[in-house]
């Protein structure tokens, strides 16, 4: 073996240098992990950490591999940053090209707390990040580039807390491949985890860093609690609750010098969504969008969308008024298209079980409700609205007029925050000053099914109440841009089982002055129902009667012209002391009762031609005065054709009525008797009613008044029945209580009148259904209570 001392000098020097390098390399390999650990300890402690523990730091400069295991950072005695494993594999060769390339980075078992204070200060794991010099990072980016071949993160929890947001994110698995600052290829990304307990899965890619920040791929979120974002949304809404679910493809890109652009395709759904805004509270059972959408978040956001929108169980409450403004079971849109220009197109709109304006009271009724409302198309373009065919099914409308003349729906709208008159006027004036209002066109509106209008009017006495059943109502060609265009109108309706109301013609709803032309037909209208209006306009109450009418009403630019042919059967009136009666009597040359008798034919029928005219724009125009004048003229003309009514007795069934309150010309048939307290027809009456029907068949011009009568026998029987029922229901099993004599249950006049009305309906239905008697010949009259001793429960038949 050669002794080093025998080597030449220069060779001994190189050997010493190599030995020194080897010693230094060995020392570096041994001491570098300790140095890194020490430096990391020091930096964390200097920047806010109170205690740092690191189990192991391993760095291999030859292989480029480094790892940290079981690092924990404590602040205020709590572990705010924990890493179980952090391992990286560095490729040395690209360093010569000023590129840092990590073959792989693996992070496992991280628990990180991120806190944003009220003043905006950020602490990550208890550490306040240092504030770098402005522009330093940009200069570094120009010289060095970064690339990661594969990043893996697993079993990681990030707890983010801010004054208005708390998010707990769990990363079960995150894989990112091939991300480089100098490349133009997308970087595949896979994320599986949860946010606030809601499952989140991302499977897509990140765009090249040279393009900007973003994401492309699928997004799946299951039942994310929206309550966590309530504080963030306080600027626009108050309370916010619900669960968000997403299953869609997302393309999101944010460039340095361009606005954020987002495109979406798939499903977005919110369940049990609730939010408040000002005095409004909205609750949705579910809201789901399924389609494509694109949003550009510029100064004025541009949106385009095409897809289906569905919602269910919508409730819109106004908190200050204890009012539910809207309740909807479900809403469906087959197609929604929203262009960046602001043009909106909807198709296949279906709203089910809708109720509008209902007080927070189980006994209240909505001012408007419908089983279903459909609209085949809607377009918004350049401020104009174009609607296709609107169809309402089982529509119920409540029109209630208060004693002061105010309609309840108007009063309701004025009470709403967005409906006050001064606000509406100010808004309209502002819009008018800025630009002309948009035009609205509706191709057709149609109402079918079991649709009704409930009319309640407290401006007359007694208060008027009726139900108008709409068999069909159709209007078309409604266009605000064409005020002189005729819009066809058809209404088929009835107010009772056997009445008919028909309206056909044209209207101009948007004309500057009212214009319409209508042909109307009424059949079988019970006159006692409209008696409150004749009291106020004519000064006479209608005790009985049936009306058929054919009329033509024309209003041309405010000028009213009308021809009415009226047929009144069984009309009986009673005068009321008021100004309207005095006005009518002044227009007649004889008492009203006498004039009516002169118009009756031998069957008690009155036929009138009643022309009306006037200028409805005239401040002095009064419809009651117009009607008074027309009635006065018609009665004077018809009095010359008066024929005395003559009836032949029909066997033993007919007697001449000479009771108090009845004219001697009335003929009373034998009554149809009922058992006390009952509205069920006796089988024994079938033969008698068959004979009555035979009379009407043989005498087709004959009309019969069907009048229900209740007696004191009914009161006694109903009281006994109710008392016995009360004893049986309330004192069952209590023999002592049962032995006591109970207090009789009182039966009111209202109950007896209702029983009398029901009896009249039973007889009318029997004659119509079993003997094909025309319903309009069976005249309705007011129910009565006969308090005489010998009175019997019955239905009187009067000719």
Explained architecture:
This protein is α+β, with helices and mostly antiparallel strands and 799 residues long. The chain is built from twelve helices and 34 strands. β23 and β24 form a beta hairpin. The longest helix has 38 residues. The chain is elongated and about 125 Å long. The relative contact order is 0.04. About 7% of the residues have low confidence.
Short description:
The protein is an alpha+beta fold.
Keywords summarizing the entry:
elongated, alpha+beta, 48% strand, 799 residues, six-stranded mixed β-sheet, 28-stranded mixed β-sheet
Biggest sheet statistics? 28 strands, mixed
What is the tally of beta strands?
34
Strand content: over 45%
Radius of gyration, in angstroms, nearest whole number: 44 Å
Q: Can you lay out the helices and strands and say which pair or pack?
A:
Layout: H1 9-46, E1 51-60, E2 65-75, E3 78-91, E4 99-116, E5 122-124, H2 136-143, E6 145-162, E7 165-180, E8 187-195, E9 198-206, E10 213-225, E11 240-254, E12 260-277, E13 280-297, E14 302-318, E15 323-338, E16 344-359, E17 368-381, E18 384-401, H3 408-415, H4 421-434, E19 440-448, E20 451-457, E21 464-479, E22 487-494, E23 500-507, E24 516-526, H5 531-537, E25 540-556, E26 559-575, H6 579-586, H7 592-599, E27 605-609, E28 612-615, H8 623-639, E29 654-656, E30 667-673, H9 685-698, E31 704-711, H10 712-730, H11 735-739, H12 749-771, E32 778-780, E33 784-786, E34 794-798
Parallel strand pairs: 4-6, 18-19, 18-20, 31-32, 31-33
Antiparallel strand pairs: 1-2, 2-3, 3-4, 4-5, 6-7, 7-8, 8-9, 9-10, 10-11, 11-12, 12-13, 13-14, 14-15, 15-16, 16-17, 17-18, 19-21, 20-21, 21-22, 22-23, 23-24, 24-25, 25-26, 26-27, 26-28, 29-30, 30-34, 31-34
Helix pairs in contact: 6-8, 7-8
């Amino acid at each position: 073996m050669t002794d080093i001392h025998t080597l030449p000098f220069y060779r001994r020097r190189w050997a010493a240098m190599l030995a020194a390098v080897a010693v230094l390399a060995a020392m570096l390999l041994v001491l570098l992990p300790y140095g890194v650990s020490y430096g990391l300890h020091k930096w964390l402690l200097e920047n806010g950490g109170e205690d740092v523990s690191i189990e192991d730091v391993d760095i291999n400069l030859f292989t480029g591999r480094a790892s940290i295991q079981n690092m924990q950072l404590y602040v205020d005695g709590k572990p705010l940053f924990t890493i179980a494993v952090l391992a990286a594999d560095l490729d040395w060769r690209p360093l010569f090209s000023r590129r840092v390339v990590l073959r792989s980075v693996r992070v496992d078992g991280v628990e990180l707390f991120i806190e944003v204070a009220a003043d905006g200060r950020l602490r990550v794991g208890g550490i306040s990040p240092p504030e770098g010099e402005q522009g330093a990072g940009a200069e570094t980016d120009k010289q060095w580039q970064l690339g990661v071949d594969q990043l893996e993160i697993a079993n990681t929890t990030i707890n983010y807390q801010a004054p208005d947001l708390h998010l707990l994110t769990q990363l079960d698995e995150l894989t990112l491949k091939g991300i480089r600052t100098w490349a133009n290829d997308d970087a595949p990304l896979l994320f599986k985890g949860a946010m606030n307990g809601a499952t989140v899965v991302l499977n897509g890619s990140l765009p090249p860093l040279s393009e900007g920040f973003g994401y492309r791929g699928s997004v799946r979120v299951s039942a994310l609690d929206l309550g966590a974002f309530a504080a963030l949304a306080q600027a626009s809404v108050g309370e916010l609750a619900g669960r968000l679910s997403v299953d869609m493809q997302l393309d999101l890109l944010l460039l340095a010098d361009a606005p954020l652009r987002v495109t979406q395709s798939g499903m977005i759904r919110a369940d049990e969504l609730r939010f408040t805004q000002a005095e409004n509270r909205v609750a949705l059972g579910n809201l789901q969008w399924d389609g494509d959408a694109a949003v550009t978040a510029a100064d004025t956001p541009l949106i385009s969308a095409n897809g289906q929108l569905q919602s269910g169980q919508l409730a819109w409450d106004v908190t200050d008024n204890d009012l539910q403004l809207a309740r909807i079971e479900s809403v469906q849109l087959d197609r929604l298209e929203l262009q960046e220009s602001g043009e909106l197109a909807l198709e296949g709109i279906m709203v089910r079980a809708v109720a509008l304006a209902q007080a927070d009271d189980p006994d209240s009724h909505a001012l408007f409700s419908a089983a279903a409302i459909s609209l085949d198309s809607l377009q918004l373009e350049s401020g104009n609205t174009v609607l296709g065919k609107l169809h309402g099914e089982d529509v119920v409308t409540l029109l209630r007029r208060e004693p002061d003349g105010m309609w309840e729906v108007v009063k309701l709208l004025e009470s709403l925050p967005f409906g006050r008159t001064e606000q509406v006027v100010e808004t309209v004036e502002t819009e008018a000053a800025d630009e002309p209002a948009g035009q609205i066109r509706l191709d057709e509106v149609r109402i079918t099914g079991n649709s009704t209008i409930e009319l309640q009017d407290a401006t007359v006495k007694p208060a008027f109440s009726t139900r108008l059943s709409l068999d069909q109502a159709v209007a078309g060609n409604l266009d605000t841009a064409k005020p002189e265009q005729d819009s066809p109108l058809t209404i088929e309706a009835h107010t009772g089982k056997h009445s008919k109301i028909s309206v056909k013609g044209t209207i101009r709803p948007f004309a500057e002055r009212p214009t319409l032309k209508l042909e109307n037909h009424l059949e079988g209208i019970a006159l006692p129902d409209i008696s409150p209006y004749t009291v106020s306009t004519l000064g006479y109450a209608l005790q009985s009667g049936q009306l058929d009418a054919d009329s033509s009403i024309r209003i041309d630019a405010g000028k009213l012209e009308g021809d009415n042919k009226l047929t009144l059967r069984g009309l009986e009136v009673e005068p009321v002391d008021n100004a309207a009666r005095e006005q009518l009597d002044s227009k007649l040359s004889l008492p009203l009762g006498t004039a009516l008798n002169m118009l009756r034919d031998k069957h008690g029928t009155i036929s009138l031609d009643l022309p009306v005219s006037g200028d409805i724009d005239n401040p002095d125009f009064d419809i009651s005065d117009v009607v008074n004048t027309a009635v006065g003229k018609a009665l004077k003309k018809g009095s010359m054709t008066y024929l005395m009514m003559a009836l032949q007795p029909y066997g033993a069934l007919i007697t001449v009525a000479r009771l108090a309150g009845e004219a001697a010309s009335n003929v009373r048939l034998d009554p149809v008797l009922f058992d006390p307290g009952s509205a069920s027809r006796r089988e024994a009456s079938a033969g008698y009613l068959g004979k009555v029907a035979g009379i009407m068949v043989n005498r087709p011009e004959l009309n019969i008044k069907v009048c229900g009568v209740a007696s004191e026998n009914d009161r006694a029987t109903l009281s006994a029945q109710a008392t016995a029922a009360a004893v049986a229901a309330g004192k069952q099993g209590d023999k002592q209580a049962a032995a006591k004599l109970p207090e009789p249950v009182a039966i009111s006049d209202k109950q007896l009148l209702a029983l009398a009305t029901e009896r009249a309906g039973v007889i009318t239905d029997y004659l119509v259904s079993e003997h094909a008697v025309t319903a309009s010949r069976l005249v309705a009259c007011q129910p009565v209570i006969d308090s005489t001793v010998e009175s019997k429960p019955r239905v009187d038949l009067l000719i």
